[in-house]
Design brief:
Strand content: 15-25%
Structural class: alpha/beta
Strand order of the largest sheet: 8-9-7-10-6-11-12
Distance between the termini: 32 Å
Radius of gyration: 22 Å
CATH architecture of the largest domain: 3-Layer(aba) Sandwich
Shape: elongated
CATH topology of the largest domain: Rossmann fold
Helix content: 40-55%
Number of domains: 2
CATH class of the largest domain: Alpha Beta
Largest sheet: 7 strands, mixed
CATH superfamily of the largest domain: P-loop containing nucleotide triphosphate hydrolases
Number of strands: 12
Length: 332
């Protein structure tokens, strides 16, 4: 099935083409992208095709465009609107492209639409990979991020952190105005189109997309298995992601049922006697509660001793290329 159309119209040809190319590189964008550098070519196209999302520069805006029956119209403004502005939603043109996309998609998500986002073009079955361990301090999140960045070199990958304390704002050197808790809240609404909201929340680390983790620890405790099912179902059916990586902390409720939703489970382990005893207790619990099927899809990881050479965003970005990255590549 053909995807809905996101059209960009800007009289500045270089800007329009560059922005279209940027959008096409983002595999998570659930639209077919078209760029126009004149009102005439846009009008001709719109007479034959329905445009679900139209981003048009303020210099190109005219009465003819206002007559188009588009799903959502957003103005690409060269200046911020005055406080009393009441026209179509506007986004500032000269800002980072990632932020611009989030603002456009936020505008799109706020406008009710009778047209759901169509499924992406044909993709193979989505793999849901869990990185989970009952142990602590064994590089679980570092492994998850290394794995995500390595897989994202050839696939559309989304990383989802399900920990109380992820430390992610410090790790990537960014602050977030929305996070997983906001997405889950939206998913709980009746008849929501979660994919519309997702596009305004998701961030990128190179080729790897991620949902900003919760900032308050109690938010993760409120996320239920039903919430996770609904989120994964939307991502599998309606997004272009081929791999979803769940970095699961021990604080999640219904962890075993969540692990059952995953294709594979990667479990970092340690070889000391205390860790071995904890793992035996975990496996005994699986047998007691009839979850032994989880053992069949669990791959134990024994990561090498790893000494970080940097901190913050530099640490995260170098994970695929260091000693730990080499180990993960062999596992994959």
């Amino acid at each position: 099935m053909r995807r809905n159309i996101f059209a960009i119209c800007d009289l500045e040809k270089e800007y329009a083409i560059n922005f279209m190319q940027f959008l096409n590189q983002k595999k998570s964008i659930p639209f077919e992208i078209h760029a126009f550098t004149s009102v005439e070519t846009l009008m001709d196209f719109a007479s034959k095709e329905h445009i679900e999302l139209l981003l048009v520069s303020d210099r190109a805006m005219c009465p003819e465009i206002q007559t188009l029956k588009t799903g959502v119209l957003v103005i690409l403004a060269e200046e911020l609107p005055p406080p009393d502005y009441s026209g179509p939603p506007q986004v500032y043109k000269y800002q980072a492209q990632d932020q611009l996309v989030r603002e456009v998609m936020a505008c799109y998500g706020e406008v009710p639409s009778s047209v759901p986002l169509s499924a992406p073009y044909a993709k193979r079955k989505t793999d849901v990979l869990a990185v989970y361990t009952p142990l602590h301090r064994c590089l679980k999140t570092s492994i998850s991020l290394a794995m995500g960045q390595i897989l994202a070199q050839e696939n559309a990958v989304l990383y989802v952190n399900l920990e109380e304390y992820s430390g992610f704002e410090e790790l990537v050197g960014k602050t977030f105005d929305s996070d997983l808790a906001d997405l889950i809240y939206y998913a709980r609404q009746e008849d929501c189109d979660l994919t519309r909201k997702l596009c305004s929340v998701v961030r990128s680390l190179g080729n790897l997309d991620y949902i900003p983790p919760v900032r308050q620890p109690w938010d993760i405790r409120c996320i239920t298995l039903k919430d996770c099912r609904r989120l994964l179902d939307n991502l599998i059916r309606r997004s272009a992601y081929e791999v979803i990586i769940l970095d699961i902390g021990t604080e999640m409720e219904e962890i075993l049922d969540l692990l059952r939703l995953c294709t594979r489970i990667y479990m970092p382990v340690l070889g000391d006697p205390v860790s071995a005893a904890k793992l035996r207790q975990y496996e005994a619990m699986l047998a007691l509660w009839d979850y032994e099927d989880l053992k069949d899809k669990t791959i134990r990881l024994k990561p090498p001793f790893y000494t970080p050479v940097s901190r913050g965003a530099s640490y995260v970005e170098q994970l695929p290329y260091g000693e730990l990255g080499e180990y993960i590549r062999k596992i994959l």
